[in-house]
Specification:
Helix content: 55-70%
Number of helices: 8
Number of strands: 0
Largest sheet: none
Shape: globular
Strand content: under 5%
Number of domains: 2
Order of helices and strands: HHHHHHHH
Length: 223
């Protein structure tokens, strides 16, 4: 199934297709009690009409989930702001929903030979680790960087070591999900889960790249 074209009208797209291809959409639909599983073949507009919802408002919520490509800011403070908005907020928003999807898939498909047993636990551990890591950056490292300090060798070494641990977790995530490839004929929730996990992995890797290779070298010689 091709990804939803974010430039098209969400209203005319089958709600199940949106759920599968747009990470975070399932959280929007669950909050509004829109059935993207059994009722996933009808358009978003039709699904909204059945529940008396404003489809334009739903489209706005979905559009907010789309990660827009952007040139990285050059100035350090602006680059930090970009990291916070593009990655920290996304991880906090998307991981809890992926955990809920994983629990559902593991429960409903427990007898399936390719069910991702243990995925919810892995994602919960990832959320805990990322939360602590991001708090260190937000409360200690980034404020110090904004002040212009250049004596950050120790804190940066710690962040780099934790990035290496995140990389190991991403490898485990890929292995558990067969490189994010759901079984043939899997349900919408399963496909949405793996698509969301793929985006999470890509985001975390890009997040680490920006910090390790662009931001950190400004504050630690030899990084």
């Amino acid at each position: 199934m091709a990804d939803v074209d974010v430039r098209s009208n969400f209203a005319e797209t089958p709600i199940g297709e949106i759920a599968v291809t747009l990470p975070g959409a399932t959280a929007v639909f669950r909050k509004l009690k829109l059935d993207y599983c059994c009722g996933g073949s009808i358009s978003l507009a039709a699904a909204a009409a059945k529940r008396g919802l404003n489809v334009a408002e739903i489209e706005q919520n979905l559009s907010a989930l789309v990660a827009q490509p952007a040139d990285l800011p050059e100035e350090t403070g602006a680059l930090i702001d970009h990291i916070l908005a593009r990655y920290h907020q996304a991880h906090r928003r998307e991981l809890p929903e992926l955990i809920q999807l994983a629990k559902r898939v593991e429960r409903v498909h427990a007898d399936h030979p390719e069910a991702p047993a243990g995925l919810a636990d892995l994602l919960e551990g990832m959320l805990r680790e990322l939360t602590v890591h991001m708090q260190k950056e937000e409360n200690i490292l980034f404020p110090t960087m904004r002040e212009g300090s250049s004596l950050l060798f120790g804190p940066i070494d710690v962040m780099r070591a934790e990035h290496d641990e995140h990389g190991e977790t991403l490898a485990a995530l890929a292995a558990l999900t067969s490189d994010f490839a759901p079984p043939i004929g899997s349900c919408g929730s399963w496909r949405a889960l793996y698509n969301g996990c793929r985006k999470l992995s890509d985001d975390v890797m890009e997040h680490i790249h920006i910090e390790n290779n662009i931001l950190f070298p400004r504050f630690a010689a030899g990084c």
